[in-house]
Model the fold of this input.
Amino acid sequence: MKLQRKAFRVRFQAFVTEAAVLLIGSVMFGLAVNLFIEPGEITMSGFTGVSTTINYFLGTPIGIMMILLNLPLLFFEWRRAGGAGVLRTGIGILFTSLAIDGLAFIRSDFTDPLLCAVFGGLVMGAGGGLLLTRGYTTGGSDLCAFLLTRRFRRLSTGRVILLIDVVIVVGSSTLMQRWTGLLYSFVAVWCYTTAFDRVLEGFGGAKLVMIISDKYEVIAQQIADEMHRGVTLLYGAGWYTKAKRNMLLCVIKRSEQYALTNLARRVDPGAFVILSNASEVLGEGFEDV
Done:
């Protein structure tokens, strides 16, 4: 009974945390568009920029257009990751799109393009990065970059987004003939990718994780299968009980912290998980310094 209550408490805390992150990240995304991007006439990147361009010509709601544009990507995500991947991606797209349209009544007097580019990019990037720490994506170039970095782990998520978004920004600016605002758009994209990477990677470094659990074999196998991370098995014994205990040692990126701790608690709610900062990691799957 005690173990069941502990498992329920762990699941409830995880649910509350996820709901809070989803809500805060989506609201930040919506506020960035309505307070800075639109008033400053910034041609933003990603499907947000494409949707803004379509809105400029046809007057269609930006959020609804983002949902329609992301439907093909959702199909490919379903082919790649199955129902769970589509569910999280779809929720992220739905919440950010609804936040943009739902907060459209909020307007600001900010019209300075440099101010709007800097703050719009930073707030939007922080919101997008916050969502991705829990596996939710905002679709568009974010989803494309996420799919690429899952396959090519040495790539920086923010840099891949930057490459994709350059094409979108230049194309949208050309159609809308906002040549002066093109430079401000690149400022906004740079601020977006910088904030996105900082939130996602936790200002650099990695996490050293140690897991003590009687179900260490199941946890290790799932880490290898689901996260494609190497695991080292250490043999030890508890000092008080003198009982032999096995411990797992794993090094992950900060963006993978939630996925790993959630995996361990899902398999064994009573697992003892220790996380510490690793300031420098050299080897496969991490950037060489």
Observations:
- The CA atoms of residues 219 and 267 lie 7 Å apart.
- The beta strands are 206-212, 232-237, 244-253, 272-278.
- Residues 206-278 form a domain with the Alpha-Beta Plaits fold (CATH 3.30.70.120).
- The radius of gyration is 21 Å.
